[in-house]
Amino acid sequence: MSSIQELLDANLHRVFGERDAAARRAAIDEVYTEDILFTDPEGSATGREALAAKADVLLRDLPEAFAFSEDGPRYEGADSGALAWALGPAGSPVARGIDVIVVRDGRIAELRTLVVPTA
Length: 119
Description:
By secondary structure, the protein is an alpha+beta fold. The protein has three helices and six strands. A six-stranded mixed beta sheet has the order 2-1-6-5-4-3.
């Protein structure tokens, strides 16, 4: 992985959108630095293992019909990017958010997730 566009795509679809644990773990090892810092409304976690655990819990508890989809344009800076997303059944999201990434050496070194429930 190297481009910010590819990393934004991989973060949403190959990691947080991937229900197969082995495929998700392979993507995590490819996409993120070993010391990835992941921050979401629940707190922060450091390292690939911690990020994998967060993704595992999230996906394990989601109904089968729920999926992540892109919810707007992708934004790109010199070493950062952002991607808005929606989560829920097709056409009926139950949550929306944005992922902001910081890239180091062609991998995501920091991931900050901001969430807005759509209740």
